[in-house]
Structures are given as structure tokens and as C-alpha cells.
Design goal:
Blueprint: H1 2-25, E1 34-35, E2 43-45, E3 49-54, E4 71-74, E5 89-98, E6 108-112, E7 118-123, E8 126-131, E9 149-152, E10 158-167, E11 186-189, H2 190-207, H3 209-231, H4 237-256, H5 263-288, H6 295-317, H7 328-345, H8 349-357, H9 363-387, H10 389-392, H11 396-401, E12 405-407, E13 410-412, H12 414-458, E14 469-476, E15 484-490, E16 496-503, H13 507-525, H14 531-542, E17 551-558, E18 563-569, E19 575-576, E20 579-580, E21 600-603, E22 609-613, H15 629-637, H16 643-654, E23 659-666
Parallel strand pairs: 1-5
Antiparallel strand pairs: 2-11, 3-4, 3-5, 5-10, 6-9, 6-11, 7-8, 7-10, 12-13, 14-23, 15-16, 16-17, 17-18, 18-21, 19-20, 19-22, 22-23
Helix pairs in contact: 3-4, 3-12, 4-5, 5-6, 5-9, 6-7, 8-9, 9-12, 12-13, 13-14
Length: 667
């Protein structure tokens, strides 16, 4: 009995060993091919189990390669969702396909809607297409389902379809699960694949027509605002309006236009575009809501916005390096460190909203404040939610992307509705602001016109006649109105008082100061025409009435016999012919109340010419910084020009200040 049991045991061992050896000698078989029995002129989705293996070997494209040890995986889902979390780099998909003889004569095509990040397509070991470009010089796209591939298959009735997929390293902008063939491939006739591709493009376009129409409206308003700002630079806020209005188009071009920019360019530009839009939006709202007077708020707004732009440009600079290799983790750290402060800065709009709500805003401006800053907050919320979604698993960005309404096949999202209200309120408030600005400008123009009319009374437009003298004059203000003046006042007998001067400053304030001075001049001239006593009286009357400014002035009393008496209050000395006349040094008018002035007397000979002028002549300046100067003036006077010729020469040289010239020729 014992011997029989041992014999049976030995027999069983031999049978087991034989079975194992038999199995070892049997060749391994790959997974059975997918038979496309229903393939006609329709398309068949390749959504079954594929063979999958991480790593990279071009031999895996060959149909004879044994992939039986590979694991099964499905398309249409990321490989991270199927047990390969954190996998980056290369991995291969393989599928054996059997094509019925009835369909093998058709021009068959493969339609691959999208992968993450790039791939090459092989059919029976031959490369037939790609999406993007795999390393060593990778190119891939931000939106992985908008750059499909269509590849032509040959007439084989059986073969192996191999997808060499490359996943880029992880960056801050990453979905919770990524990598692999994220859309289901389809096989079909060329006609069916073309129809499928066209239907996919039409469905995408139809679902976004409202959003794109809204973007186009924003762009048109932006271009109109920019064109208006270039024509009239007084409306600086229109430049910021143009930036805000063009933002949706810029964002579409940078992030969503299929195949236009690679991932690295999209990722490099999206941050600066958003940061610049925030600067423009906040600056525009400060202007339209009347918050520019809050200087601290305006200063902090500029500081935060410019800092955010700087941080995004730093992140952009990282794209200059090839971080898709060993530096991927270092890039991720730099990306996170430079992006998180920018994300936090986007919530500065809440501060502006709080300050705006404290003011008594009208309905239009209140709507603009709320909708404008909500758009900024929505962008900030979207950025915070989507950029860090891989680690936080926040779903806020998904909620914003969910359609609220469907009209005519087009989906409307919360952001579309908000942008529509924002656009309407912005146009209304901009129109109101333009009307208010036009009214203010009209008042300014009326005041300026009044000042010009007043100055025409103060500065003679026709040259007065002076007994015994030939007088010519020229007046060229640097702006619409100026601070130069001259007066010719007849005195008792044959004497005439000639006064020329220059009030500090330019524009309307200087013109008003001239009006004060000329009025005081005529009042003082009634009590005597001696230049020294006249300037002394003028100085006392003008002290404290020039708004902290002053006036230089020169006064001459001339007679038809050639007697000339003159005094200067800090003014440039006159010329007799080409000779500069000495004057007694003295302070300008209006600085000290007790300043005394002294007169100088001279006798003119027949043919002598006295030239009075303001500093706009000698301070005329070329673009290179060279001044007209006294030497050029003396040289010019040698040709005995009239006042207009002197003024023309300085103006042509390069006018910087008001120009006034009086020329008095004796005899």
C-alpha cells in the first residue's frame, strides 16, 4: 500500500512538470484583434481595451511586437484616472485591428480628437500622423481637445494601431487627472471622418457663437476707443477702455484659438494679459467712478497691478528654458511661487468696490462698479480654482464653465451674462462721462476764448503810431494765451510811454495776471509817466496779487526829439542798434513791496533803432538743446530787421516760451 501511494505521487509530479513545461513551450499570444464588422461608410469608436505600457521604444510600433504582457487601458479617460497617477513622459497604446475585406477597399481614416500632451500615430509600424510634436523638441497645446489629428490608413485588412503618447511635466495649471488619449479615436471612411470632423467643428462653433459675438462687440468698442484716444489725447481713459475691451479677444487668441500658439507660448502670455487687464480695469473704474481723488487708493492700485505684471513677466521668462526635461520640478516650484501672489492680487478689486460703495453713486455707475469688479473677481476665482485644482480639487472653475442657458444651440455661461451687463453699463457710464467731459471742455473753451479776447485788448493787434518813431511789433504766445504784454500809452505833450513785460508762468493763469498788471499800469500812468516812479508804483500795487508769481518789465518814455528815459524791473536790457544798453539792476515786480527803481537817460540819433524783447527770443531752443542766445540776436539785429522778422527767426529756431518784440526806429 505504501509503495503504491509513493508511485502515484511520483506519477502526479511527473504530470504536473510536463504540464508546466508544455505551457512554457507554447508561444504567448497578443490580445485578439478588434474586428470592425460594422465598418461601412460610418465611423466606429475605438473605445475598447487597448494594450498600455509606460516608457518609450520605437520597436513597440511594429506589428510583430508581443504586447501580451501589457496592461489593458481604455481611451476617452486620462491614464491618471486609470491607475497611473503622476505619470509624465512617454507611454504607448496598442490595438490590433481587423478590417473586413468589404471595407478594405475604402479610403479609411483615423480620427483622433485629442491627447494630453502630444503623440505620434503609427499603423503597422509606419508613422502616419501626429498631434503636436513629441520630444526632443516638444510642441503641445493648452486645450487638448481642439487640435485633432486625421491620419490615412493603408489598404491592409489587419494591422496594429500604435499611439506614442508624451505627457508634459506637471505645471501649476493642471487638471486633477491628466495624460493619455483623453478622447476616443474613431475609424471610418474618408467621407465619414470628414463629416465627423466637420460636425465636431460646427458643434463647437455653434455652442460658442454668443460668446464669440460678445467678444467681437468688445473688440469693436475697444478699437473705437483706441482710435478716439489717438485722435484726441485729452481722453486718456479711453486707452484703458481699449485695453479692457480687447481683453476677451486677447485671451481667446492666447489660450483658445486651436493650434495657434503652443502650450509654452500660451502659458507665457496668459499671465501678463490678465495682469494688464486688471491694471486697465482698475484704472478705468477709478476714473469713471470718481475715485482718482483718493490718491492713496490710486497709488496702491498702481503698485499692486504693476507688481503683478512684473511677477507674471518673471513667470514668462521661465519659458526661455527647456523645463520639459530634468528641470520640470524646479519649474513647477518657480511657477507656483511667482503665480500665487498674482492670484491673491486679483482680489484687490474688492477694495475698490468697498470704497466705491461708500460714495453716493448714480444707478449707472453703481451697476458699473458692481459688474466691473465682479468680472475681475470671477477671473480671480477662476484662476485660483483652476490653477491649483490638481492639489485642491476645487470645482469652482467647473461651475463657471457650466452652461446656464442654451439659446439657438449656443450655451450661455454666467461669465457671458455678467460680461453683457458689464458692457452695457460701461457704455452707458462712458457716454455719461463723455457728455460731462464735453461740457467741462466747452466751459474751458469759453473761458479760454474770453481770455483771448481780453488779451487782444491788452496786447494791441494793430501797431500804434508814435510821433517821430517807426514802430513795429510781434506777439507769439507759446499757448493759446500767454504771459507777455506790451502797451503804448500817449502822455502829455509829445511824449509816449512804452512798456513791455513778461509775467511768470504760461497759459490762462499768466493771462489773468497780465490783465491785473495792465490795469494797474494804466492807473499808475495817469499820475505820471516817469519810468522809475511808474515801476515803483506798479510794484506796490501788484505785491501779493500775482499768486506767488512775479513780472519782469521795462518802461521807456520817449519824445519826438529823441529824448529817451528807461527803467527796468528785472527785465532783459534793450538794444540800441546792435549794442546792448546798460540798465540798473532791480528785482521783478511783485516780490518785495518796498523795491525802488532807477531810470537811465539817453539821446537817440537819427536812424537809431531801440529793440525791446522778452526772453522767449534768446531762450528759443533746438531739439538738441542749443539756445538761440544773445550772440545770434545781436547778429540778427545788424541787418536791421523789423519785429516780425526777429520773432519769426526765434520761432523757427524752436519756440519754448512766449515771444514778444517791439522795434522803435527814430527819425
Amino acid at each position: 500500500m505504501l509503495t503504491s501511494a509513493r508511485s502515484l505521487l511520483r506519477c502526479a509530479r511527473r504530470l504536473a512538470l510536463t504540464a508546466v513545461l508544455s505551457l512554457a513551450l507554447v508561444p504567448a499570444h497578443a490580445a485578439p484583434p478588434l474586428v470592425l464588422t460594422d465598418l461601412g461608410r460610418a465611423t466606429i469608436p475605438l473605445d475598447g481595451a487597448w494594450q498600455f505600457h509606460s516608457g518609450d521604444n520605437l520597436a513597440w510600433a511594429q506589428p510583430a511586437f508581443d504586447d501580451s504582457a501589457w496592461e489593458p487601458i481604455r481611451t476617452g479617460k486620462t491614464w491618471e484616472e486609470q491607475g497611473h497617477y503622476g505619470l509624465t513622459g512617454f507611454a504607448w497604446y496598442r490595438l490590433r485591428v481587423s478590417i473586413p475585406a468589404s471595407a478594405s477597399q475604402l479610403p479609411l481614416m483615423l480620427y483622433l480628437p485629442g491627447v494630453n500632451s502630444a503623440c505620434e500615430i503609427y499603423w503597422n509600424g509606419r508613422r502616419i500622423g501626429s498631434i503636436g510634436r513629441v520630444p526632443p523638441n516638444p510642441v503641445w497645446y493648452l486645450w487638448r481637445d481642439r487640435v485633432p489629428a486625421i491620419a490615412k490608413l493603408d489598404g491592409s485588412t489587419e494591422g496594429v494601431l500604435a499611439l506614442r503618447v508624451w505627457k508634459a511635466p506637471i505645471v501649476y495649471l493642471n487638471s486633477p487627472y491628466e495624460g493619455g488619449v483623453v478622447q476616443v479615436p474613431q475609424i471610418g471612411s474618408a467621407e465619414a471622418i470628414a463629416a465627423l470632423s466637420a460636425a465636431h467643428a460646427a458643434a463647437t462653433s455653434n455652442s460658442l457663437w454668443f460668446t464669440r459675438a460678445l467678444d467681437l462687440m468688445f473688440l469693436c468698442v475697444g478699437m473705437l476707443a483706441l482710435f478716439t484716444a489717438l485722435r484726441d489725447r485729452r481722453f486718456k481713459a479711453l486707452v484703458w477702455l481699449a485695453v479692457v475691451m480687447c481683453f476677451p479677444t486677447e485671451l481667446y487668441v492666447v489660450t483658445s484659438m486651436p493650434g495657434f500658439l503652443s502650450f509654452r507660448w500660451s502659458y507665457a502670455l496668459i499671465g501678463p494679459v490678465i495682469a494688464l487687464n486688471n491694471l486697465a480695469l482698475w484704472t478705468l473704474l477709478l476714473h469713471l467712478l470718481g475715485l482718482n481723488s483718493a490718491r492713496r487708493l490710486a497709488r496702491w492700485t498702481r503698485t499692486i497691478a504693476l507688481t503683478a505684471i512684473g511677477m507674471t513677466l518673471l513667470d514668462t521668462a521661465f519659458q526661455l528654458f527647456d523645463w520639459t526635461r530634468s528641470a520640470g520640478k524646479l519649474f513647477l516650484i518657480c511657477d507656483v511661487v511667482s503665480t500665487i501672489p498674482v492670484e491673491l492680487s486679483e482680489f484687490w478689486g474688492l477694495v475698490i468696490l468697498v470704497v466705491a460703495l461708500r460714495k453716493h453713486l448714480d444707478a449707472a455707475r453703481l451697476t458699473l462698479a458692481i459688474t466691473g469688479l465682479l468680472t475681475s473677481m470671477v477671473q480671480a476665482f477662476d484662476d485660483v480654482s483652476s490653477l491649483g485644482a490638481r492639489w485642491t480639487h476645487w470645482t469652482g472653475a467647473d461651475w463657471l464653465a457650466a452652461p446656464l442657458l442654451v439659446i439657438g444651440g449656443s450655451t450661455m455661461h454666467f461669465r457671458d451674462i455678467l460680461n453683457t451687463v458689464f458692457l452695457i453699463s460701461l457704455l452707458v457710464v462712458t457716454g455719461i462721462a463723455a457728455i460731462e467731459q464735453a461740457r467741462r471742455q466747452s466751459l474751458i473753451d469759453q473761458e479760454l476764448q474770453s481770455a483771448q479776447e481780453l488779451q487782444r485788448l491788452l496786447v494791441p493787434t494793430e501797431t500804434p503810431k508814435v510821433e517821430g518813431f517807426t514802430l513795429s511789433s510781434a506777439y507769439r504766445p507759446a499757448r493759446e494765451v500767454g504771459g507777455d504784454f506790451f502797451q503804448v500809452i500817449p502822455l502829455s505833450g509829445s511824449d509816449t510811454l512804452v512798456v513791455l513785460g513778461d509775467v511768470s508762468g504760461k497759459g490762462l493763469p499768466a493771462a489773468i495776471a497780465v490783465a491785473h498788471l495792465v490795469g494797474a499800469l494804466h492807473s499808475s500812468a495817469e499820475h505820471g509817466g516817469n519810468p522809475d516812479s511808474l515801476l515803483t508804483a506798479l510794484n506796490r500795487r501788484l505785491y501779493g496779487r500775482l499768486g506767488g508769481g512775479f513780472a519782469t518789465c521795462i518802461a521807456l518814455r520817449i519824445s519826438d526829439s529823441g529824448e529817451c528815459q528807461f527803467a527796468s524791473a528785472g527785465h532783459l536790457p534793450p538794444y540800441r542798434n546792435t549794442e546792448e544798453l546798460p540798465v540798473q539792476p532791480a528785482l521783478p515786480l511783485g516780490l518785495l513791496p518796498d523795491t525802488e527803481y532807477e531810470s537811465t537817460t539817453l539821446k537817440l540819433a537819427a536812424g537809431d533803432v531801440i529793440t525791446l524783447y522778452t526772453d522767449g527770443i534768446v531762450e528759443a531752443q533746438k531739439s538738441g538743446g542749443k539756445l538761440f542766445g544773445f550772440a545770434a540776436l545781436a547778429h540778427l539785429l545788424a541787418s536791421r530787421p523789423n519785429a516780425a522778422a526777429i520773432a519769426d527767426a526765434a520761432q523757427t529756431f524752436g519756440q519754448e516760451d512766449d515771444i514778444t518784440v517791439l522795434s522803435l526806429g527814430f527819425g
